[in-house]
Amino acid sequence: MEKKGRDEQKEAEDQVVNPWEVTAKDGGKIDYDKLIDKFGCQRLDEALIRRVERLTSRPPHVFLRRGVFFAHRDFIEILDAVERGEKFYLYTGRGPSSESLHLGHLVPFMFTKYLQDAFKVPLVIQLTDDEKCMWKNLSVEESRRLARENAKDIIACGFDITKTFIFSDFDYVGGAFYQNMVKVAKCVTFNKVVGIFGFTPEDHIGKISFPPVQAAPSFPSSFPHLFSGKDDLRCLIPCAIDQDPYFRMTRDVAPRIGFHKPALIESSFFPALQGETGKMSASDPTSAIYVTDSAKEIKNKVNKYAFSGGQDSIENHRKYGANLEVDIPIKYLGFFLEDDAELEHIRKEYAAGRMLTGEVKKHLIDVLTVVVERHRRARAAVTDEMVDAFMAIRPLPNMFD
Amino acid sequence: MGYSKDQLLQQLKELQIDFSCYDHPVVLTVEAQAKYLGNLGGGLSKNLFLKDKKHRFYIVSTLASTTVDLKVLSQRLGLGKGGLRMASEEALLEILQVPLGSVTPFALINDSTRNVSLVLDQGFKAQNLCFFHPLTNDMTISLTARDLDQFLISIGRNPTYVDMELANPTVGKDQPPDLAALVPSGIIVLPDSFAKADTVQCPSEKHAPVENKTVTATAVKQSNHAPGVKVKPQGAGRPSSSNSNVSKFVEEILDKMSTVVLSEVTNESVQQHRELLGPAISDKVRERLRLDLESLAVMFKNTVYTQGLVAGSQTEPLHKCK
């Protein structure tokens, strides 16, 4: 069965991956194979990707093709259900800790939008303003404000309002949602959460009682205005792999309270501009490309700060070629350049030393500028009324169309 | 149109707020104002109209003697260092609807300022009387801070007083910006800046559609200075109506398509594809535009749905016949 989460904090030598900290071993790269092994989830292989393509009658998303979303739990069960003509719903979320979003933040939302369109299913998006209020010591007002601001950028990713419900914990917790929170909480001992999340006796009780809040949206009865009478509906959660502990806990609890285990589809981490070992920080504007960056700023940031795997001189570069393992522009192109053939060509030429860093960076700047501009245009169309509409507790009669 | 001085004073009288009026020649600076009113014992105000990088606007009203450090204020609002600058004269005229040199908290009586945030100096509370322009700068009125609060509350505002000279206000990881709640939730888009924002398109596109937009920007600029011609500002509530406008939607799609088609018809592509140029370009158009058009379309859908939801919530039930 599944490996239970061990206390990662104790293994100081090893890499640390949990919802509040991601550090590689000895300042190196995250070892994803080890992570899959330790967490006990499955690899998303070629066969599954082909199956998704068949079932959805459209090319698989670039993040699937490039292995950005690379691990899963029970995704096969979801695909089996779809083949039987059954439905499911999507659940994802964001902790609104900062006003400015960078491209890494958009990755899970871009993928979730693809899943919504490809499988024609509804989506609930949780804004954990309460979590950020507690962990980042923000005021209630500030965390609620950030939640609304972030909601606008999330909406700009292109979610369909007739199939999407966005909610903030401070607004929505209560009623059927809270009933499920209590059901979950009753099944998880204090020792268990200490083991999974590393809480200590000095942590305040808000933190210790938070996990059920992130678990509850996995159960359809938490949303009576959407899924009333559909207690059997399965849930698929696209998220970054550091969120796995929350959902390991949820999956353990689910059968004990009469629900399907939520399925997960997990992504690797988006690298900082300065390299995989660099830390992306909301307060360091040079560590990432923000959705508010102008074309000029993007060009400047990529040229100045993107870590290059090229050699230090042109002669050496022509001789030895580039190190694709550490080159950030190549990695970023892996995320955002749709054309597989073009990416392959660039990789080949760059590794052979025939293409220079400057050229690769130019390709990246062009691609990122298009992505950011598209987002900016969509974001300009989001009004406060639209946010209210996405967050209104209303039925979604066309959610499976 | 904005409120006039007389309309404001009438409103203050109706609220039974005591105030005194002082006429003086037009003054554009605090120093000039002090020449005429300096002997009345303190309370003169310094009023700044500021904007941040995300098109949000602020009136900062302090005692003339208070030092305002824009860098610190910017940090305390959570805008980073240097996130605040003086708003343009156009913004002053369009949003506050008062002449140059007349920035005043009373400008908030105008509906065009609904997304403008007000920051008031704590120092006002220590004064017997505070002096502000009543929407024009050839007069100053004095009233107590309590009465100012009463006026602000009557127009739906929550007066917030701030210690402007807070010593060492560090804003960092563990200390969130203390004034962040004062940042407005809505942006105000002026015709000029809106047109400018549109011209920052993909750098590779250098064709007719982009040039058209530049022309529009110039035209708008000129009409702002033409006497008697007023361009309607796009307040935060307005964008939704233009985003559900069918002709604009279609024009934008056609503009994008022309740009791509024109950029794909080159000597090379003509020679490469010859008689199959048509299908080749057709494929290119789909490939290059699919995501952009999907994004536009879903925003159109969301905008129209939102309008429907709002209308639905205001719809009165039909009379039922028994």
From TrEMBL, chain A:
Its EC number is 6.1.1.2. InterPro entries: aa-tRNA-synth_I_CS, aa-tRNA-synth_Ic, Rossmann-like_a/b/a_fold, Trp-tRNA-ligase. It holds the Pfam family tRNA-synt_1b. The keyword Lyase does not apply. It is found in: Cytoplasm. It is an enzyme of class 6 (ligase). The keyword Nucleotide-binding applies. GO terms for biological process: post-embryonic development; reproductive structure development; tryptophanyl-tRNA aminoacylation. This is Tryptophan--tRNA ligase, cytoplasmic.
UniProtKB/TrEMBL annotation, chain B:
It comes from the Eukaryota. This is YbaK/aminoacyl-tRNA synthetase-associated domain-containing protein. Residues 223-244 are annotated as: Disordered. Belongs to the PRORSD1 family. GO terms for molecular function: aminoacyl-tRNA deacylase activity. Residues 24-150 form the YbaK/aminoacyl-tRNA synthetase-associated domain. SUPFAM superfamilies: YbaK/ProRS associated domain. InterPro entries: ProX/PRXD1 (IPR040285), YbaK/aa-tRNA-synt-asso_dom_sf (IPR036754), YbaK/aa-tRNA-synth-assoc-dom (IPR007214).
